[in-house]
Write a structure and sequence with these properties.
Layout (H helix, E strand, L loop, with lengths): L1 H7 L6 H13 L17 H13 L5 H11 L6 H8 L8 H30 L4 H21 L11 H6 L7 E3 L2 E2 L3 E6 L5 H14 L14 E6 L4 H11 L8 E5 H8 L8 H13 L3 E7 L1 H4 L8 H4 L3 H9 L3 E7 L18 E6 L9 E10 L10 E5 L7 E5 H14 L5 H8 L3 H13 L3 E2 L5 E2 L6
Parallel strand pairs: 3-7, 3-8, 4-5, 4-6, 6-7
Antiparallel strand pairs: 1-2, 8-9, 9-10, 10-11, 12-13
Helix pairs in contact: 1-6, 2-3, 2-6, 3-4, 6-7, 16-18, 17-18
Length: 466
């Protein structure tokens, strides 16, 4: 009865720690015989017996066979499928020492709690002198404090020498698209009205429906997506999303609207609030299929912090890192400032893997969306995948995007300016919002191809091309 009561006390058991510790021991035979625990460290009988069998089996070329053999000798029944699943979990041995320290700390706290319950029973029953009971309790408390101190986690347990690092099996970060890894942190920004929401909604649809997205093709595998919207009216969001969907998603496509949240809680969504942060983590923990989280946008959903303050933004980073550790990619949507860069502190970009800038296409209007796509920061993606390009969407055919390299679109717009009489390199560079060097290179190309006449002033050639 007392032991059952102690396990009801919050924080006295953690099956996820027990499972992770046993999974590491099973997957990494070289860790066996180190960081030894006793059976009292485990609250779950299956994990306790499995741990004892793993240690008894020792290192082996066939870990599963040796552990199954040890289980048989201990007369313990464990399903082979469960054992195989445990051995294939994406864990590594780097945090083994800290995991053990946590398990031992919990075991010590359980013993301390048990001692308190036993002492309380004695005091209630008056079976012993109260002063004797209190002296025993004080002695036990000192023992528990010493025991807990021996197993306190330290940075030393996290240090790896080079051979250990080289031998460690580190799970590969799966990619949704070439520039978007599971667990990656991404920011997409651009001026108001340019089409940022179109970009992220199509990204969500492509990831959940296993559809191509712009020039990057289909995702490596479909993933569940949660879109958090803090700006659009719910009716508009539903209409836009429904009109863009090509069919039923392969994986879950879920929406968290600020409007619905306000109706429920009578307050706006705000991810500076720790309760709201915990709520999102709970959603992700309860649905492991969600591997992409889109937050649209920073201005609406992170209120109460100064955009220009790096210190204020750091209040949010532990939450974003907690999402990353769950293997969920995050795409943050943000506005551009007057100068064209993302609005607020540049320190926001320090922890990000990828930053994507959407830019205006000068002298061009589209009925859907039209913008340039530029990767200002990219970890793990290179070459053609992250080269700048111009993308265009027509609402008449919402399933398809068209795109071309930025130089191609700039070339065509340069010729159009020449036809309109804007024909000096300097004036063209100002109009196109590009460098004079780029205009000079494109001018040389146009002259070589016969689209422009040579000279200080640029004159269009009057032919079919013009």
């Amino acid at each position: 009865m007392i032991r059952q009561e102690t396990r009801k006390v919050k924080g006295l058991s953690s099956l996820k720690h027990e499972r992770a510790y046993v999974a590491i021991k099973l997957a990494y035979p070289q860790t066996r015989g180190t960081h030894l625990l006793d059976g009292e460290a485990f609250t779950d009988e299956t994990y306790r017996r499995l741990y004892l069998a793993i240690e008894k089996a020792g290192p082996s070329e066939d870990p599963l066979f040796s552990v199954m053999d040890a289980l048989e000798k201990l007369q313990v029944q464990v399903d082979h499928e469960f054992l195989s699943e445990l051995a294939q979990e994406p864990v590594n041995g780097a945090g083994l020492g800290n995991l053990q320290a946590k398990l031992q700390e919990l075991a010590t706290r359980r013993k301390a709690s048990l001692a308190l319950f036993e002492s309380a029973d004695k005091l209630i029953d008056l079976s012993e002198d109260p002063s004797t009971i209190l002296n025993e309790l004080l002695a036990q408390a000192k023992e528990f404090a010493h025991e807990a101190g021996e197993y306190r986690p330290s940075l030393e347990t996290c240090v790896l020498d080079l051979p250990a690092l080289q031998k460690m099996e580190i799970p590969e970060r799966q990619k949704i698209f070439s520039w978007l890894c599971q667990g990656g942190l991404v920011m997409l920004y651009g001026p108001r009205g340019i089409g940022k929401t179109f970009f992220v909604l199509f990204l969500a649809i492509a990831a959940a429906c296993n559809r191509p997205f712009m020039k990057w093709g289909k995702p490596s595998e479909p993933v569940g997506v949660l879109v958090i919207d803090g700006e659009m009216a719910l009716a508009d969001l539903r209409e836009r999303l429904t009109s863009l969907l090509p069919g039923k998603p392969v994986e879950p496509l879920k929406i968290l609207s600020g409007e619905v949240a306000f109706t429920q809680f009578e307050r706006d969504l705000n991810f500076v609030n720790s309760d709201t942060q915990e709520g999102i983590l709970k959603i992700l923990d309860n649905d492991k299929r969600i591997r992409l989280l889109i937050i649209d946008n920073i201005s609406c959903l992170f209120r109460g912090i100064k955009e220009s303050s790096k210190d204020d933004w750091e209040k949010v980073t532990p939450w974003l890192l907690a999402i990353r550790r769950r293997g969920v990619a995050v795409v943050l949507v943000h506005h551009a400032g007057k100068g064209g860069d993302q609005r607020g502190t540049s320190g926001r970009e320090d922890m990000l893997d990828t930053v994507v800038k959407l830019g205006s296409v000068q002298n061009d209007v589209a009925d859907g969306a039209k913008f340039t796509v530029t990767f200002t920061k990219s970890r793990g993606a290179y070459g053609e995948d992250v080269k700048p390009f111009e993308a265009s969407l027509s609402l008449g055919t919402p399933e398809s995007w068209t795109w071309r390299p930025i130089e191609d679109s700039t070339y065509d717009r340069m010729l159009a300016l020449a036809r309109d009489g804007i024909d000096t390199v300097s004036d063209m560079a100002d109009e196109l919002k590009v460098s004079k060097g780029l205009v000079s290179r494109l001018k040389k190309k146009a002259i070589e191809q016969g689209d422009l006449l040579p000279g200080r002033m640029i004159h269009p050639v009057e032919n079919e091309k013009c």
